[in-house]
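Researcher: I'd like a structural prediction for the single chain below. Treat it as a standalone chain; there are no partners to consider.
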Amino acid sequence: MIDEIHLLHHSHTDLGYTDLPSTCLDLHVGYIRQALDAAEATAALPEAARFRWTCEVLAPVAELLRRHPEERARLLRLVAAGQVEVAGMPWNFSALLAADEWRAALDQCAPLWRELGVSSIMQTDVNGLSWGVVPGLARAGIRRLVMGINVYAGGRPLPPHSAFQWEGPDGSRIEVWLSSGYGEAFGWFHEREWRRGPVPRAHDPWFNPPLAGDCWDASPAGLAAAHALLTRRLAQGDLAAYPHRVLAGQVTNQWRMDNDPPNPAMAPFVAAWNAAGLTPRLVLSTPARCSAALAASGAVLPVVRGDWTDWWADSLPAMGPEVAIAERAKARTARLPALAAVLGAAVPDCTGLWERAWSWSEHTFGSYESVP
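Model: Treating it as a single chain, here is the predicted structure.
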């Protein structure tokens, strides 16, 4: 019996899918600032309904702090209050993540992880993650992974809505939440997507963010319709077989599905839902908050051991020369410190080189918007 549903609100970071990569990064920096505004604006709401936001990946957060250092104190305050959680992976990594690149990511991300109290990672729109990352994550204090797969381009090692302990090759473990899609929980409360694509349409003046009543309708009629739909959803398929009292669901705005802004309408919807006594109880949440609630509910999570093959490789056969160039660049970057030692030269700062490698290993490989 599901007593509580934790809604994890985030924007799926798809570098280049809806816009040029540089534009996507600009957008996500702005979205974090919007999320901070929404969190502050709902401080007087009941705890479960206060706006919460999960920064899906780390790179836009780092960019925010570079461009707007004045936001650091506000971000840290809301992280400490539990209204914002920063997930620690630089991007949503594809199968192109190399071992040296991963070690560099652990080293370079560590200072921000410590400052922001990072204990979770998210990977969305990809369908696996190398088994070799588990030991490094566990050593760095990362305790959980939220995996929101692409249901159109891959498979799952376990049924969706699974919570388990993923054991690495050295015996270390991290907790995993496996959903059936990175925006799926929107559909638990809505008969259809309020607006979806076609992508890209960012330039279309009629293609605007949601207005009041378009979605998350907190009126009595809107709540009744959402509750009836959720009741049906929970009685069907994978959700009907879910064994725990606390369920997590990922929510994106679904304005364009990917690279979308926060939706502050979720906060008054959750407040009205709980005030009406509707069940299950709803909580605007974050990965760490949801994990704590799952543990407090007495859930016992099975241990799963083995590699998690990434199925997201659609574009690799069409990009052989580009893949080869990028992989050679990674290998050469990894050798630079050793080469400097042989030459008696200063060890070069490879930070920028590795950041470019991460953006290459990000899962989109380019931009729809670049085609027209």
